[in-house]
Amino acid sequence: MAAIFSGSLTVSAGAKTYAAIPVNGIQTTGQSLQVDIVMPGNVFPTGLTTLILGFSYDGGTTYKEAEGGYLGPILPGKGGSIQDQALGFLIANSTTVTHVRLKTNAPSAFTLPVSVSAVGV
Amino acid sequence: MAIKFVQSTTGTGNLTLNGVAAGNTLIALDSTYRNPSTGTAVATPTDTGGTFTGGIGGACALLFASAWDVGIGIFYQANAASGTHTVTYEASTVRQHTLAEFSGMKASGILDVSATAKTDNGTVTSQSTGTTGATAQADELIIIGIGVAHDTGAANIGFTNPVSGFTTLHIISDTSSNIGTMHAYKIVSAVGVQSATFNWTDSEIGGEHAAIAAFRSDGLNVQIPIASLWPILVAC
To answer: Which pTM does this prediction carry?
Structure first.
């Protein structure tokens, strides 16, 4: 598994696009690639926060996107704990990803500890 | 055209795929842990870009003296519209979702056969999907899924990954604060009954619910031996 990004994002209110991350060489030719974002569930503000993972196969010119919506506050679940939230994308083995890009759209600003990782499958 | 995996996204919230090609098939899977008052089976997700059918899975498995249930639902949308599909799943306490796109499928009547199986309040380390009837045609897409909920749970229940013969779309091995989840597919090229078994190592009381569904290809993956064409070519 390869870490693409690990740290805290300052998510501002409204839509925000983060700088694309070059990931040339992260995907073995002919192999699918699973990219995952994991986030603690207790940081999401009230309302709908949207995360968008974009994948470019042409050097960052165009992006294909997957999107997850998280309706906060996220309530405690099994055992009283709040479930970690996740978003993933499986890239087909017929393509080769060159860049990964993250977008957010939040009802209010908050800090989001996040880790983005990729693993060949 | 042969069946081909195009893309998939997974997560805990609603899910969106952009750039879906017209005519492709979308598969939505929902593993969920919830109060049984939510409903007997997992509810069909909604889609801003089309309509899902299915609910393959049936009644959820019960645990904790029927105070909670755990379920799997497999849903499908043939001949999808091009563009953006935002899929909203049933609201539940803990959930894991997959939204996947495949090409090479029939435009209608794609569901062939399916099966489902569950364990209520049991202590097991495996769960079968049940066995389908024989598939109607050779080239088909097989989708499987499971939801596992345990009493205390473990950070890693030790799923056997992948399920033999399948490609994993989504796996969550944590049952302490999450729902154990596996969603997977395979493409077959011969008729026959279909089944799969999920295995893990953590043994504790809980509930498990698994399902399997076979979907028809467009039937255009026909390869004609060149030798059989030779008389025609000669005649021409």
So the answer is: 0.87
Give buried/exposed letters for B111-121 (b at 16+ CB in 10 A, else e).
Answer: bbbbbbbbbbe
Give per-residue pLDDT as tens, A64-104.
Answer: 888 899 988 988 877 778 888 999 998 888 888 999 999 99
CB pair distance less than 8 Å for B10 and A86: yes
Q: Which of A36, A81, A94 sits opposite B177 (nearest CB)?
A: A81
What residue numbers bound the domain in which A109 lies? Answer: 2-120
Interchain contact A15–B (C-beta under 8 A):
no
Q: What is the pLDDT of residues B133-165, one digit of tens each?
A: 999 999 999 999 999 999 889 999 999 999 999
Q: Quote the mean pLDDT of chain B.
A: 92
| Residue B190: other Cβ atoms inside 10 A | 9
Residue at B188: amino acid letter: V
HEC per residue, A46-81: CEEEEEEEEEECCCCCCCEEEEEEEEECCCCCHHHC
With 0-12 CB in 10 A as exposed, 13-18 as middle and 19+ as buried, what is B176? middle
Write out residues 7-46 of B within 8 Å (CB-CB) of A.
7-19, 33
The answer to whether B62 and B207 have CB atoms below 8 angstroms apart is: yes
Nearest of B97, B90, B77 to residue B20 by alpha carbon: B77
pLDDT (tens digit per residue) in A18-76: 999 898 888 888 888 888 888 999 999 999 999 999 999 999 999 988 889 998 898 88
Identity of the residue in A69, A71, A90 whose CB atom sits nearest the CB atom of B7: A90
Overall domain count for chain A? 1
Per-residue pLDDT at B229 exceeds 90:
no
Which CATH number fits the domain that encloses residue A101? Answer: 2.60.120.20
Chain A closest CA to B92's CA: distance in Å? Answer: 9
